[in-house]
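check these tokens.
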Amino acid sequence: MTIRNPADPRRSWTGKFVVDTRAFDSLVPGGILKAIGLKPRGSRDYVLADGKPVTLEATVAEIEFEGVIVGGTIAYGREGTEPLLGVTALESGGFEIDPRNDRLKRLPEIMMKRGQPKRTAA
């Protein structure tokens, strides 16, 4: 996956990410985000996998994976933190997890609004 600075798309970083469907936002070591010129836009309160609450700085960046580019919130992780792709970026790109095959699965369409399901004659 690639993280890009939207103000200067030539500044980017490509690496391996773990997809975490229990994480809303994505997470990348802060040094990497700073190296591509991203600056914190604020901070957010999170709960880590071990249940520990933590406040992390966050920014907005372009996230590219599987040929799709989405905008997403990325938290500044500590150095050595494994990069995570959160569920908001995943769903925004039109993907879901296929747990049977442990892969990303492209959705046939992306929902724009909730509404009544289509009914077909049986």
User: Anything to note?
Assistant: Strands lie at 2-5, 8-14, 18-20, 26-29, 42-47, 53-65, 68-77, 84-86, 95-98, 103-106.
